[in-house]
TrEMBL record:
Protein name, as recorded: Signal protein
EAL domain sequence ranges: 23-276
Domain of life: Bacteria
């Protein structure tokens, strides 16, 4: 039994060792990508539509992109958690903010009027960092247009603890003019009371509910309920992951007029949107 146990443990350890090595290699590659400026932003357009008028571009979501020379495209779904658990998020966040500030002239030229937003994703650790507010204030001083155009996307994971501290922080940020969106809404564990207490401008209906909207009656019921809830609370809704015309039509019919997804536009470098 001892022998078998030993083998079993060794096998398990080898797998763990491999996994660990893989993460270590990826982490080293990420560190050097950061220091060698190999990260970039893609901007995915957001649209507003209704039954009568045509679709209008109203914003962009900024999404981090990393293309490694050897490994190729690496999804933020893979490297953001790695950055989170290795203390690299401040660097990534700084990069995103600085890039958006650099891009703000070009961004504003992508819109027909002044009512547009550029949304960035802010992780729980970032928003809870001591210098978050001070840093944001400094950036708004340096680039006052951020106050009008920046939106911070946070997920429900931010709201799990420290709700009073988060509420205070969000109110201060809101008073600067910067808005909040609740990302991936419906996938977390937050209580509905947060929607009442916290200054969100809009809810992002998670793409998981949009995917089978046409075929799954529970998903349709959830989307309907989220829209009704948002309307009742005076919040806007935007649907993520709209991949087909049929999904767009259904969402508009249900009363969700803001849309983001591959059907309307993929995340692309800013240069692409300057031409389209
Ligand atoms: P998210 O904030 O919910 O971003 C939406 C994700 O859905 C993006 O994936 C986007 O490319 C993808 N998407 C958009 N439209 C469609 C569609 O029609 N169909 C499908 N299947 N997918 C669509 P991406 O770029 O891989 O990012 C994944 C996640 O990584 C983001 O989810 C966000 O949580 C995180 N992330 C990305 N950039 C940043 C960043 O700068 N900072 C932080 N903290 N997180 C980031
Ligand atoms: Mg997002
Ligand atoms: Mg999302
Ligand atoms: Mg997500």
């Amino acid at each position: 039994a001892k022998v078998a146990g030993g083998r079993c443990i060794r096998f398990f350890n080898e797998q763990m060792q491999e996994e660990f090595n893989h993460r270590q290699v990826l982490l080293d590659a990420l560190k050097s990508a950061i220091s060698m400026n190999q990260l970039s932003l893609a901007y995915q357009p957001q649209f507003c539509t209704d039954a009568t008028s045509e679709t209008k571009r109203i914003g962009f979501e900024a999404l981090l992109r990393w293309v490694d020379e050897e490994k190729g495209y690496i999804s933020p779904g893979d490297f953001i958690p790695l950055a989170e658990s290795n203390g690299l998020m401040p660097k990534l966040n700084r990069f995103v903010m600085e890039q958006v500030m650099n891009d703000i002239d070009a961004l504003s030229e992508c819109f027909s009027d002044d009512n547009w937003v550029v949304a960035i994703n802010v992780s729980a650790s970032q928003i809870k960092a001591d210098d978050f507010l001070r840093d944001l204030k400094q950036r708004v001083e340096a680039e006052p247009r951020l106050a009008q155009h920046l939106e911070l996307e946070i997920t429900e994971s931010v709201l799990i603890d420290d709700i009073d501290a988060v509420a205070k922080l969000m109110r201060e940020v809101s008073s600067m003019g910067i808005q909040f969106a609740l990302d991936d809404f419906g996938t977390g564990y937050s209580s509905l009371i947060y929607l009442k207490l916290l200054p969100f401008r809009r809810l992002k209906i998670d793409q998981g509910f949009v995917r089978d909207l046409l075929n799954d009656r529970s998903d349709e019921a959830i989307v309907k309920t989220v829209i009704a809830l948002a309307n009742g609370l005076g919040l806007e809704t935007i649907a993520e992951g709209v991949e087909t015309e049929e999904q767009q039509h259904r969402l508009v019919k249900l009363g969700c007029y803001q849309l983001q997804g591959f059907y309307l536009g993929r995340p692309e470098p800013l240069a692409h949107w300057q031409k389209h």
